[in-house]
Design a protein that fits this description.
2 domains; Rossmann fold; NAD(P)-bd_dom_sf; alpha/beta; 7-stranded parallel beta sheet; 3-hydroxybutyrate dehydrogenase activity; 3-hydroxybutyrate dehydrogenase; binds nicotinamide-adenine-dinucleotide
Length: 260
C-alpha cells in the first residue's frame, strides 16, 4: 500500500492537520498539491515538504467555498500532473457561540467552508477520476460527525453533513472506481483548537484548564490529545487502500472519546 507518484490534492494543507497529511503522503513518494487560502503560505509549505520528502509538492491558491477558485486550482493540477488520484477535503474553521447568539453570517460562513468546500472540490475532481476509472475522496469529519457539544451548532451540523455526502459519493462513484470515506478525529492541538480554549472558557464560564481536561479530553480513555500524525496515518490508509472495499465509511481516531 503506497502512494508513489499518486497525485493527491489536500485542501487547507498550509498548516495543521492538512499539512501533516501532506508530509505523510510525500514521505511515501506522492505528488501533493498544497491548496490553501494564501499562495505564499501554500508555496512555503510546498517548498519545505519537497525538500524533505521522497515525493514533491506544488502550491495552489484556493478558497474552497469559491467555485471559480476551486475549478481554476483543479485545472492547474490536471495541467501540471495530468490527473487527480486522491482528494482530501480538509479545509475547515471553527466558530463557537450559543445558538441564541450565533450570528447568521457566521453560521453560513462555517457551513460554506466545510460543506460547499467538500461539494465543490469533489464536483471538480470527479470528472478526472471517472475518466481514469479510479479515485479516493477523503473528507475531514470529526468526532462531531457523530457527537454534539454545546456552542458548536454550525460545526456539528457541517460535520454530520459530510457523512451523508461521502455515502452518496460512494454510491454514485462506485461504477467509476471512486470511493469516499470520512476521518473523524478527536481534539488535535492545532491553531484551530488553541483558539477555542480561551473562547470556550469565556462562553462556558470555566477555566482554560477545565476546557482542556473536562470539555476536550474528559471523555477520552486516557486524557490524551489525538496527534496530527495519528490523523495522517488514517488519511494514508484511506488513500492507499488497494481496493474499493473500503468505501462509505467513517473512522474515529480519538483516544476512545467516541466508540462505535
Ligand atoms: P488549522 O486552522 O490548523 O488549519 C486549517 C487550514 O485550512 C489553514 O491552513 C487555513 O488557512 C485553511 N483554510 C481555512 N479556510 C479555508 C478556505 N476557505 N479555503 C481553503 N483553505 C482554508 O485547522 P486544523 O485543526 O488543522 O483543521 C483541519 C480540519 O480538521 C478541519 O476540517 C477541522 O474541522 C478538522 N478537525 C480538526 C480537529 C482538531 O482538533 N484540530 C478535530 C477534528 C477535525
Amino acid at each position: 500500500m503506497n502512494l508513489k507518484d499518486k497525485v493527491c490534492l489536500i485542501t487547507g494543507s498550509a498548516s495543521g492537520i492538512g499539512h501533516g497529511i501532506a508530509k505523510r503522503y510525500i514521505a511515501d513518494g506522492a505528488l501533493v498539491v498544497i491548496a490553501d487560502l494564501k499562495l505564499d503560505a501554500a508555496q512555503k509549505a510546498a517548498d519545505e515538504l519537497t525538500a524533505k520528502g521522497l515525493g514533491k509538492a506544488i502550491a495552489v491558491e484556493m478558497n474552497v467555498s469559491d467555485e471559480e477558485q476551486v475549478n481554476a486550482g483543479i485545472k492547474k493540477v490536471v495541467d501540471t500532473w495530468g490527473r487527480i488520484d486522491v482528494l482530501v477535503s480538509n479545509a475547515g474553521i471553527q466558530i463557537v457561540h450559543k445558538l441564541e447568539d450565533f450570528p447568521f453570517s457566521e453560521w453560513k460562513k462555517l457551513l460554506s467552508i466545510h460543506l460547499d468546500g467538500a461539494f465543490l472540490t469533489t464536483k471538480a475532481c470527479l470528472p478526472h477520476m471517472y475518466q481514469a476509472g479510479s479515485g479516493a475522496i477523503i473528507f475531514m469529519g470529526s468526532v462531531h460527525s457523530k457527537e454534539a457539544s454545546p456552542l458548536k451548532s454550525a460545526y456539528v451540523t457541517a460535520k454530520h453533513g459530510l457523512l451523508g455526502l461521502a455515502r452518496v459519493i460512494s454510491k454514485e462513484g462506485a461504477a467509476h472506481g471512486v470511493r469516499a470515506n470520512v476521518i473523524c478525529p478527536g481534539f488535535v492541538k492545532t491553531p484551530l483548537v488553541e483558539k477555542q480554549i480561551p473562547e470556550q472558557a469565556k462562553d462556558l464560564g470555566i477555566s482554560e484548564e477545565e476546557v482542556v481536561n473536562k470539555v476536550m479530553l474528559g471523555e477520552t480513555v486516557d486524557q490524551e490529545f489525538t496527534t496530527i500524525e495519528d490523523v495522517a496515518e488514517v488519511a494514508h490508509l484511506f488513500a492507499a487502500f488497494p481496493t474499493n472495499a473500503l468505501t462509505g465509511q467513517s473512522l474515529v481516531v480519538s483516544h476512545g472519546w467516541y466508540m462505535n
